[in-house]
Amino acid sequence: MPSDPQRYTVTAALPYANGPVHIGHLAGVYLPADIYVRYLRAAGRDVKFICGSDEHGVPITIRAQKEGVTPQQVVDKYHALIRDSFSDFGVSFDIYSRTSSETHREVASGFFEKLYEENKFIEQTSQQYYDEQAEQFLADRYIVGTCPNCGNENAYGDQCEKCGSSLSPTELINPRSMLSGNQPVLRETKHWYLPLDQYEPWLREWIVEGHKSDWKTNVYGQCKSWIDQGLHPRAVTRDLDWGVPVPVPGADGKVLYVWFDAPIGYISATKDLLPDTWETYWKDSGTKLVHFIGKDNIVFHCIIFPVMLKAHGDYILPDNVPANEFLNLEGDKISTSRNWAVWLHEYLADFPGKADVLRYVLCANAPETKDNDFTWKDFQARNNNELVANLGNFVNRAVVLTHKFFEGKVPAAVGFTTEDEDVLRQLSEFPQRIGELIDNYRFRDALNELMNLSRLGNKYLATTEPWKLIKSDEARTGTVLHVALQLAASLVTLLEPFLPNAAANLGAMLQVEKGQWSEAGRSNLLLAGHALAPTSHLLFQPIEDATVDAQVQKLLDTKKANELANAVAAPAKENVSFEDFQRMDIRIGTVVAAEKVAKTKKLLKLTVDTGLDRRTIVSGIAEFFIPEALIGQQVMVLANLAPREIKGITSQGMLLLAENADGSLALMQPGHEVRNGSHVA
């Protein structure tokens, strides 16, 4: 591992092209990776930022089957959506590639072939379910059956999503194929395995001893736990028709397992970016390789992929894998299947021009060491109290006062006081302090230090009060604003890794370009007489209660829809005799009058023509029906229910209604008009 790297290869986990990306993805992987890369570029380092879509695997084929399209059409759709979402949020990949590309197929095939030719794999045969009608072996997700633990009749071959149990296909009761619906049979099949157990001694030396002090504790702990439990051979191929074909004889109908194929996507993407020099970024010992991932990918990037690279022999190993924990949403785990998420493309539609606000909130609340929670109220508070009232307020005051008192030109400094010198000294220390935190993957602390710089500026202006000072000492006022504008000029460069749009807007206001990291902190970035832009605007705007209330309601509506979709019918009541049932006299009637019962919220007074008589019925349905809309409606009435006095009104019968899972009511009515008094049998 190079102590002073000549170059950096930075990868961000390949998002799965089976759906859009959400705030959990951005907070956990792509935002910290982008901050790191933008900082390295500002520091003048040679860095390549690599990512792309992971486009193979069973979930994609299942989605394609359900939607009646091809797997390629599925990945084309989501590759474009994900790519555009990242671009709109300023995630500055040098390349965003895809694993369905021809380059990837060649690189992944060549990687497998080298390990195969050098006997780095072991071959094993096993019994696997086969669909005789579809004439193919079935991946675990193509097999459903009854869960042996909870009785769920639609458990998958790898997991029951109702009780959460991990399963194997042979554990399912009455398994059936999702392709044909038939019961599959067990057949023998051959696959190639990566013998992870053979690399245990090396992994102990490389990770357990070698990265004890420099990897994050959550990453190191998970790796050590896996190694301590003992590793086992892992299949690198599977029976499927969507993926990179296994490039050896006797492997018809087999593809590279997606977990083996996907990380090679980093290499193939780099080759797409740099066809002639890509190997320098993957094979030269002067290159520092850093993987940004979420905690669900730690084992793949810290154990399995390094074993693949080690087995190959030509590649460098990752220097660090600064994985984050998970981000929850309003106290609940983000779930794509339950639509419990804030999707990036939807956020941009609801908050146009506010990509940086979400970048700020997600970094300030990043799940770096433990799971954290995103709430819309915190989002609003951080925007209004920190971006608007702190950072935006400092910049706005410095610029507006310069326009007001000095015609929009940087005033000259006429002698610095001790206070001025102390502020400029502190300014000079911020770039190194922020940079060291970023170098150590402490992005949340780095952002806080950045905000401390604007806090320093606000405090300085509050103490010196240039808006009052101008009345008695114009020269001193000019010095104060000169110092304040130097702080603002450094913010252009220091802000850019975190909030690139705001940094660009600030640069436009000050009429300066972002500079090298080493230049930030200087006290002469803006010379006396330098003209600011003729007009300025607020960097950030307050977010109102109604705006976030709408987002909260959107989530509540999602939760309600999920509850309705998953609602289970109430248990059946005890049996009654046929004779008891026959005693009920259910008739068809027509509502001829309806009105609300005074001083109640739920009660309606109805007059119903039952064919036998006209009678009064009091019913607790006022929350769901408008009285006038009921007039003329045919209804089902339990006509021989004993009379009952309700709010001083004698009710003679009961309407029959159905209650939905959300508590709403629906009238039970005949399918077409019938004679009043007709029996319901």
Describe the protein in words.
41% of the residues lie in helices and 17% in strands. It has a five-stranded antiparallel β-sheet. The mean pLDDT is 93. The N and C termini lie far apart (83 Å). With 681 residues, it is an alpha+beta fold. α2 (58-67) packs across α3 (71-88), α12 packs across α13 and α13 (376-406) crosses α17. The longest helix has 31 residues, at 376-406.
How would you summarize this macromolecular structure in one to three sentences?
This protein is α+β, with helices and mostly antiparallel strands. It contains 21 helices and 25 strands. Strands 19-18-17-20-23 form a five-stranded antiparallel sheet. Strands 3-2-1-13 form a four-stranded parallel sheet, sandwiched between helices. Strands 5-4-9-10 form a four-stranded antiparallel sheet, with no helix packed on it.
